[in-house]
Amino acid sequence: MRLFMSVDLVGSTAFKAKHSDRRDGDEPYPVWLNRTRSFYRQFPQIIDNLFAEYSGILDGREAFKHRSPKVWKTVGDEIIFCIRIVCLEHLACCIRSFVKALSAYGDLINSQEPELDVKGCAWVASFPAPNATVTSASRFSIQQTESQVGDQLEEKDEQEADINPGEYDFLGKQIDTGFRISKFAQAHELALSIDLAWLLTLLRQRDLVDCQFTYRGKEALKGVIGGAPYPIITVQTERSTDKRELDSLERTVAGVSFAEPISLRNYLHSFMVQNKVEIPIVVLHHDKIDEAKLPKCYDALKAAWGLGEREDAEREKAKQEANDYDDDVARELSTPETPGTPAPALDPAPTPASAEPSNIGEINLTIDRMIDEYWSSGKW
């Protein structure tokens, strides 16, 4: 299970247009560029510092104290972080660090430029199924074959992707969902996927996070659960006491209260079951995962992986048999004739398709054809 967290610089487009030529003192670059560069540099540093602080007080920290969120990629004025989740305590540490970083950096950028702020969204995704890890095309030179990009990766590759996510791409329906929900992020609300929101209600029950959830209704998202209306869940991240008070008054007037965590958890669980959204499996650090409760995609992956291994074994066996056959024929063709034995008569007529091949090239073609017929027959 990997956690993805996206932070976006709010108001940056308007700021660039308004201050396109503004510079501070003798700075060679415009202010908007310096602010963006500082955002790329400072926000990840803030998360790292907060993660180290929070991980020092949580149980099971030895298993995740060096697993702070890593930058996966930057897109314009957006930074996307990625980290493989070890346990529920680790997830709590990551979320607390991210929410606090939104607040800390928001205060910092507001003190420099009141027109700028930050907003965030977060989601989770399971690997290697139903989502997939693929090697980023940027890692390969143009001399290497295209088949190397996007090939099925092994566990060692997944572990490498945990350390250096920037060298990999992550594809799948849960990744698509994460990008879809980002439009509901606001400077004072963190948007969540429903499976992550469900996990956070578990953390809230155990006092590992202090989240105030809001249910914003449902909305159809393109390509998500077949277009069925998707629950919009947010967590309050407002850092200003005055604005929090105003938000509370507005909620009272509008009759919109924070969602009660237990009721929200039960609702999201029922929604995911009915809409065939797989329940995420993350446990406390001292608990073991019950394999009987693993999602269906795990069994499907296990079966497919086993089939692939059998196919590879059969393919290697067929190749070895073909090579052995080539070697036998080559030895027969190279055996010297017995003195006095007349040479066979040459037949200038073309060899019929049903006759024995007359050279190694034809032998190889015949073997290849036999192998293709074997695999296409479905008898394996």
Structure, explained:
It is a single chain. The chain is an alpha+beta fold and 380 residues long. The strands form two sheets. The chain has a seven-stranded mixed β-sheet with strand order 2-3-1-4-7-9-8, sandwiched between helices. A two-stranded antiparallel sheet has the order 5-6. The longest helix has 39 residues, at 296-334. β8 (213-220) and β9 (229-236) form a beta hairpin. The radius of gyration is 30 Å and the shape is globular. The protein contains ten helices and nine strands. The protein has helices spanning 12-18, 31-55, 88-112, 155-163, 173-181, 194-205, 241-254, 261-274, 296-334, 360-377, and strands at 2-10, 70-75, 78-84, 117-125, 132-135, 168-171, 189-192, 213-220, 229-236.
Keyphrases for this structure?
45% helix, 380 residues, single chain
